What we know:
The structure holds 3 protein chains of 3 kinds. Chain A is an alpha+beta fold. Chain A folds into 3 domains: about 1-50; about 80-125 and about 270-395, MetI-like fold, CATH 1.10.3720.10; about 180-245. Chain A has helices at about 1-15, 20-50, 80-115, 120-135, 140-150, 185-210, 215-235, 265-290, 295-300, 305-335, 350-360, 365-395, and strands at about 160, 165-170, 170-180, 240-245, 245-250, 255, 260. The longest helix of chain A has about 35 residues, at about 20-50. The two termini of chain A are about 50 Å apart. In chain A, about 30% of the residues are buried. By secondary structure, chain B is mainly α. Chain B folds into 2 domains: about 1-40, no CATH class; about 60-75 and about 135-345, MetI-like (MetI-like fold), CATH 1.10.3720. Chain B contains 14 helices and no strands. The longest helix of chain B is centred in the last third of the chain and has 33 residues, at about 315-345.
Amino acid sequence: MKFLxxxxxxxxxxxxxxxxxxxxxxxxxIILLLGxxxxxxxxxxxxxxxxxxxxxxxxxxxxxxxFDIQFxxxxxxxxxxxxxxxxxxLLNTLLVSGIGIFFATVIGFxxxxxxxxxxxxxxxxxxxxxxxxxxxxxxLQIFFWYFAILxxxxxxxxxxxxxxxxxxxxxxxxxxxxxxxxxNHFAYGFLFSILAIYLFVSFSKKKQEKTGVQVPTFTTSxxxxxxxNLIVIYFGNVGLSLSxxxxxxxxxxxxxxxxxSVIPELIALAFSLSLYTSTFIAECVRxxxxxxxxxxxxxxxxxxxxxxxxxxxxxxxxxxRIIIPPVTNxxxxxxxxxxxxxxxxxxxxxxxxxxxALMQTGKAIEIVSITMLTYLTLSVSISLIMNWYNKKNxxxxx
Amino acid sequence: xxxxxxxxxxxxxxxxxxLLTITILYLFYVSIPPLLNWVFLxxxxxxxxxxxxxxxxxxxxxxxxWIKRFTYGMYPNDQIWxxxxxxxxxxxSIGSYFFxxxxxxxxxxxxxxxxxxxxxxxLFHGGSLxxxxxxxxxxxxxxxxxxxxxxxxxxxxxxxxLLAMGRRSNLPVIKYFSIGFIELxxxxxxxxxxxxxxxxxPVFLPSGTNxxxxxxxxxxxxxxxxxxxxxxxxxxxxxxxxxxxxxxxxIGMGYWKSHLLIILPQALKIVIPGVANTFIALFKDTPxxxxxxxxxxxxxVNMAKTNxxxxxxxxxxxxxxxxxxxxFCFSMSRYSLSLENKLKTTN
Amino acid sequence: xxxIIELKSVNKWFGDFQVLKDINLTVSSKxxxxxxxxxxxxxxxxIRCINRLEEHQKGDIxxxxxxxxxxxxxIEKIRSEVGMVFQQFNLFPxxxxxxxxxxxxxxxxxxxxxxxxxxxxxxxxxxxIVDQAKKFPGQxxxxxxxxxxxxxxxxxxxxxxxxxxxxxxLDPEMIKEVLDVMVDLAKGGMTMCVVTHExxxxxxxxxxxxxxxxxSIVEEKPTDQFFNNPENERTKLxxxxxxx
Lengths: 398, 347, 244
């Protein structure tokens, strides 16, 4: 003990006399350590890979994939390259994340606001919802809903029929595919209506600044939107027909051709992600609204603002500032959690690329690096957007 | 105020409120009785095979029969006493902690942090001193869930604190290394990290060496969660006013002393909710290890439901697992809330 | 002088606790009254009932001829004629000082942006912070913020100004700048009801001083008489504590 103390004292004394050592030596040590670790791993890696006859390199991306993907937003078959398979996986990840984010936000805001309701029954039900779906692991929820959905769906020849053109069976839910005529007319018309609304809103804002007259922007915008688009549809000969799914037999297997199918894995995954993440978003929304000082609403009321004006001009702008950063973090979590797709075989990027492709090519290092890099890029971009948004909207302080 | 007044104010204040209350009560009416029927009234609790489930409700016999596997995984039945022994020692230590003098408290603390982990591992794994070796391959169930959670929590916390301090360091190498390390683990999903640990990691070791899969998984989870702890603790360090750092330095305390004795105790108190949340998240993340072949509680349920003698009982299995996880997570979050409140009042 | 605020037999309860007991009070146009009393006496609640930030359960309140009840149209009309200044300022942190002031004129009185800003600058000048107009509340000192809050209330051109302990949250060196603004306002003829402990201000500006304790008005007198000849024992006790 004494020996140790004496030497520590000596070390401290030494560092006081040569402070630069205290600054540079630890850093040098860390760099040295990292260098040793990295070279040790790399050496082992190259020996091991060589022993297995696997070359390193990214050339394999152009090779034929030789496997099929159950669900894809773009055309893909086994003759396409691994690079294209990566793209399919990426699109599937973005698809399920997008759907999840949308529903999680809607449900989350609704539950968060209900949690603050003056109706005690409603607020307790919201609280129970949050506690239940937050404290059960996401993977378990995914299994449960996947299993529950599968149980409900019959086999292909016995499909559940809704509205005469939606067919649900164990292979998926089949909805009619949209077949457009003159879609470009519609697209231009749509863009034009958006532009018109934007111009109208700026114009009415200026008018209010100048004369104080308030124009009902919301209702007029909706009117503009529908009028322009309907005119374009009528005069532009924009046609929409539906290609209905029709049951066909092929070598004894029943399948629906001609429509678009949504596989139960996607439904189960999107559903669980939405429910699970909505609980966290609900808590963010609650914190945001509670975070607004009561005095703000009182001051706004005392200068004569109506209830809806107080909400629009005072409460929501301030609440959003508090709510949006953590909610964006939840979006990020949802996107990362979508990787659990691997457990129920939804072909997201992890299953397709870091799963099937990796098993076929054995190029573990390249594939896992690309996958992790993809997620890193998504995370960092969302973080950057968040930082930019925060800076732009930060309330100036002295 | 009596019940009618109370309900008029809180449930039926205006027509919108009343509509809401009535809708909710109707939903209760439609969903709760069938649920109660399935869970309790029509359910079968006792028996030894699927045939005993006749009621039409839940077949809890499934759980009854499999409970040992769900708790201990594939651990040999005759060795289960070792696991139980370790948990008993653990609970006795924790329990007595609250009832003894502070002098003995110190010994219990040292025992729990320095001695018990090795004792537990020895009991679980065996291999010498007359205890039969039980490979980690067969460890599973709730036992494995708790094992992984506890060890990961113990290790990820100090690493996280060091990373948080490193991120705030003035030495550029340490600072950027910490930032890079933290952002790397936070930016990728845990499942890819587990894949990496299971599939890729052996590639980096000299051929022939075999690091136990369980150890690899614990390392992976530890490093992953330490990044989240680092961010939480960083928030706490930032919240400590500059004056505290100055005061510590002015009485001659160096970097390590001031952090250990002054800064960290205050910072950690502030971030208790955040740290507790991260621990709870870690616990909820443990089921993911089933994708790399380790059968903790959820993995065992998945395995049991495919057993030919017990087909079709997946719902019961999932509900049981959900119930267990819920109890743990809910209790942890309530405990952290009470801890937060307790420390607030004594401040 | 016409009666601009009338409170008749006003009673209010918070749950089982009665916070206002049979309050009778009239304020005439251009009159300045100061309400004082120990904490918990109900003085803040009293003036908050005048612009319906609190609801009274029994009795009548008439402001500028309009009866105050559950009718929202009446409430909004009264609120646009009554301005309030809060102890915690309650400026809107996400808007600049100028925007804080022009918000209500634009959205409630439907003024054009130009007119509203002209009006705002006029009042900001009156409270002497027109050079801070583009800054945000977080960048101002306490005294500046409270003066901005006064300007914001004045921009609705109210007939009555209510002050709820306007200087209680300020550091001592900033109290004077706010009181000066209030004295100026009083001299300009504004009807004012001020809840405060600043007896110097009361002596300088108030026409009447009202002492409240435990929910009732204990003593109500013209200023000179109140300070020189208080009748009630409780008033004497309170004054001796406050003025020392």
